[in-house]
Design goal:
This protein has 102 residues and is mostly helical. It is built from 2 helices and no strands.
């Protein structure tokens, strides 16, 4: 997760540097440049919002897959325990030395 934080930090550093250079070398007037930057900022915010939502959705899917695998393992273990109990009962019932009353 720390790598994602570093990548996001580098992204914002690059974004800031790009804005600074763009303002210095802008071929448009101040108003046109501000409008352009506002539009690009909105686009960037939308992109980040979408990426965040994709990350949340992916995490939720991974959690659900993990829960399903855990349920399957619990069911398998429960079935194995039941089979072991049944095998024990059958062995005890069929072994002549296990039941001295007969």
């Amino acid at each position: 997760m720390e790598d994602a934080g570093k990548g996001l930090g580098y992204f914002f550093l690059g974004l800031g540097a790009g804005v600074g250079v763009g303002m210095l070398l802008a071929p448009r007037s101040g108003t046109a440049t501000r409008n352009y930057l506002q539009a690009k900022t909105r686009e960037g915010a939308g992109y980040l919002k979408q990426q965040g939502q994709d990350l949340v959705d992916g995490a939720n899917e991974t959690i659900e897959r993990g829960k399903q695998k855990l349920r399957n393992q619990v069911n398998s273990l429960s079935d194995a325990v039941d089979a072991g109990k049944q095998a024990y009962r059958e062995t005890v019932e069929t072994t002549p030395f296990a039941n001295p009353k007969t």
